Amino acid sequence: MKGFNTIKIINVVIPAGIEHGQQIRYEGMGDNSIQGIRPGDLIVNVLVKQHNQFQREHTSLILEQQISVWDAMLGTTLTIQTLDNKTLNITVPAGTQPEAVLSCRGEGLPNMRSRQRGNLLIKLKIHVP
User: Fold this and answer.
1) What is the rounded CA–CA span in Å between residue 71 and residue 9?
2) Which residue in 38, 71, 80, 109 is deepest, having the highest Cβ count within 10 Å?
């Protein structure tokens, strides 16, 4: 068949915030082996690799952070590194209960359509000695 031996290299732009399983369509960049018929579309299936520290829930990022029972009772400040390499100082209030979730507004992933960012959710795991 004509055209199948041709290799074409294109730059594929993966938009920030794309989710696992979504597709990107590039019109006219697919098969063009049949003369007289317009080329097909190239469909890129996106597979998002899991991060070793953050979990994803749509545009929100979830980070589990272990703290001591003393820090939960008395309060503390956590230093968190975001995906964007930004350093956040998060206040854990005195009397924090097990499984509490602290939210950092706008520190998650961007929404592909609106460009607004989701939240970073910090799930506190209290370590009891």
Assistant:
1) 54
2) 109
| pLDDT value of residue 15 | 86
Cβ contacts of 18 within 8 Å, gap of 6 or more: 24, 46, 48, 112
Nearest 5°: the CA angle 97, 105, 63 is: 55
Q: What is the pLDDT of residues 68-120, one digit of tens each?
A: 999 999 999 999 999 888 999 999 999 999 889 999 999 999 888 887 999 99
The length of the chain in residues reads 129
**What is the average pLDDT across 11-39?**
84
Task: Collect contacts of 77-80 with beta carbons under 8 A, ≥24 apart.
Answer: 78/122, 80/104, 80/120, 80/122
Provide the terminal-to-terminal Cα distance of the chain, rounded to the nearest Å. Answer: 69
d(CA 122, CA 65): 7
Q: What is the CA radius of gyration of the chain?
A: 22
